[in-house]
Amino acid sequence: MRRIVLSLSLDKHQNPGNAFSTFRGVFIPCILTIFGAIMYLRLSLVVGRMGIVQSIVIILAAASISFITSLSLSAIATNTRVKGGGPYFLVSRTLGAQFGATLGIVFYCAQAIAVALYIVGFSEAFVRAFGLSSHQLVLVATVVNALLFISVFIGAKWTMHVQYLFLVLVVLSLISFFWGALTLWDNSQLQNNLAAVTSDYRHFIVMFALFFPAVSGMTAGANLSGDLKNPSRAIPLGTLSAVILTTLVYLAMAVSLAASCPRDVLLENNFAVSYAARSEILITLGIFGATLSSAVGCMMGAPRILQALARDRLFAPLQIFAKGSSSTDEPRNAILMTFVLSQAGILLGDLNVIAPIITMAFLITYGTLNMATFYESVTGNPSYRPKFRYCHWSISLVGALACLIVMFLIAPVQAFVALVVMISLYRYISYRKIEGRWGSLQSGVLFERVRKNLVQLEETAHHPKNWRPIILALSGGGWERPHIALYGHWFAAGNGILSLGQIITGDITDRSGRRDSQEELLRQFISKQELQAFPAVVVAPDITAGIQSLVQCHGIGLLRPNTILTGWPSDYQKAASFFATIRNIIQLRRNVICMRLADYPADPREVPEGTIDVWWRGKDNGPLMLLLAYLLSLNLNWRDHTVRLMRIISNQAGEEQVYSHLQELIQASRIPATPHVIVAEDSAQAIISTSADAALVILGFDLPDAKEEEQFYEHMEELTGSLSLCAFVYSAGGMDLYA
């Protein structure tokens, strides 16, 4: 699968036309989005059903999630240079393209459908105020949606001017309500409305789901992050101020409704706020202002999320939404798409149906934001240096868990479906191997996990039972001896670690550039051959010094190579220098595997037919030889190759005893193998004839004495003769086959 790399595509698309302040770009949009249809049209129902005590619990629970998420949002926003895309931008630059794209799609859909929520709320008030039929609600909502689309399509700056008018209407309506509620205040009424009408906990969950969208507007300012003068200052200050103020207003409204309205009015009249207010006209205008401003906020914010998502080139079909207007970079194609989605939501025509859908989407968004901040903080990433210091990782974790728990409390089936959709999107993006060059948190999380595990591994006493092959394959540039690299990969079998070593002879001053290029070429070889391996390239005066450097210095802690995989000399003249190097490796207490190929196959990945023959000649090298055969057989292409444990004896009288001994070895080692005893006087001839059709022959060897290297080389050549593929093994210990 091809790998797609994303760059910081947002950099060149920053909008120079608009530069909103904290008050204008964050505080007002947050206030007006939070103060929406739910506050005017459904808060009274929550108070009527649940009573003032449980209503306060619902408000505080919902506001707590919103407040914690605001803290997390503030921490992330002050840790990076914030650009367009709001929460999508922050999560994608923190958790990576996969999480960011998944969240971006969900959050965009939530914002687009939220437009429908607020417009339907406006239409309910409009139909009632002008005495229209309820059947005309969808028509009114459609007309309003079209008008909002046109106004936002013109540009954000013009729309922001209208927001001041909406703010005035909302403030006047709240003054009218609290003035009227104080006039009608009745302590006995408050006493009657203390308790809920039912003790069924399911009603509490339903009312929470209905109310939660009322606190979901805290991302309105972050959605306009690309249009702010100073996002890292404006987002924390404006968002937190808006959340705190609106929470206090909700609490005051809930208590005032309970003290000024009878229970039946709260339960049956969606416009109970008008019942308690000093002026019904001001409440109607407030509903108009709040719902329209919330709809405008989402209609402005959602397209910018879609535009940022498209500009990151995560999904090819979304490219049409990346384009902005020439002057102010308005996402007009994305605005049109948002209009279509909001219209689809309007066709549902019921706040009670739309609200839970939005609740689920916002909970996913908030949970992901909190998780992003938690991971940034808990991993100790040095790049995590937020200017906003009031968000501990434990707070973000609580926020993430709260969102997850509330999702399943509200609607377990829908929550499960939502998570499946999120995971599916994540897996799809991961399958396409999309990466971002903006530096995500995933590598930081992996680094911290590896660091802690390495420290813990270093502090743990090593036991031979836990031995794993950590192989340094001296494969050169990879292409030079691909069979060395591939057999290293097969011997590791997904249970060990493989490094491909290459030595460049010369002086580091002259060869540093070549070293870098060769390391990159080695990475390309590893990628092309789909190996799980690491490149290791060193510059040294000669090959011997280079091998010594690699063996001694490569790796970290207990993850240093314990096994060196190399080739075999092509003639006896190279034997002296070869075994001198092997002697140095053995002195460093490393296992050695020497691969001898009589013929090089055209395709090095082609696995030869036949058995895997292990010639047992004692317990010095035998356990490692048998284990290597087993590890090789774990690979998919080697699974149908039988492992044979072979032993040569010169006297037939001992055949039964040796056969039983081999069976005991196989049983004790728990390795599937078949024992074979060969009676022969000529060991070399027996090995060559018996293993003539073997795919791989594994033989042990002992280090020859100095000046006897050529004789030893000739002896090993005599033992293997015409055999096509052999592995000569020397064990330095450190593993226990029977543990």
How would you sum up this structure, described in words?
This protein is an alpha/beta fold and about 750 residues long. Helices cover about 60% and strands about 10% of the residues. It has three domains: about 425 residues, Amino acid/polyamine transporter I; about 100 residues; about 150 residues, HUPs (Rossmann fold, 3-Layer(aba) Sandwich), CATH 3.40.50. It is built from 27 helices and twelve strands. α7 runs parallel beside α11, α7 packs antiparallel against α14 and α14 packs across α15. About 50% of the residues are buried.
Please tag this protein with its features.
12 strands; disordered N terminus; 739 residues; Amino acid/polyamine transporter I; alpha/beta; ten-stranded mixed beta sheet; Rossmann fold; 9% strand
Main CATH class of the largest domain = Mainly Alpha
Shape summary: elongated
Give the overall average pLDDT: 86
Span between N and C termini? 41 Å
The total tally of domains equals 3
Label the CATH architecture of the largest domain: Up-down Bundle
How many helix segments?
27
Strands, count: 12
- Given as residue ranges, the uncertain stretches (5+ residues, pLDDT < 50) are 1-17
Biggest sheet strand line-up: 5-4-3-6-7-12-11-8-9-10
Which oligomeric state applies? single chain
Structural class: alpha/beta
User: Largest beta sheet, briefly?
Assistant: 10 strands, mixed
CATH-assigned fold name of the largest domain? Amino acid/polyamine transporter I
CATH superfamily grouping of the largest domain: Amino acid/polyamine transporter I
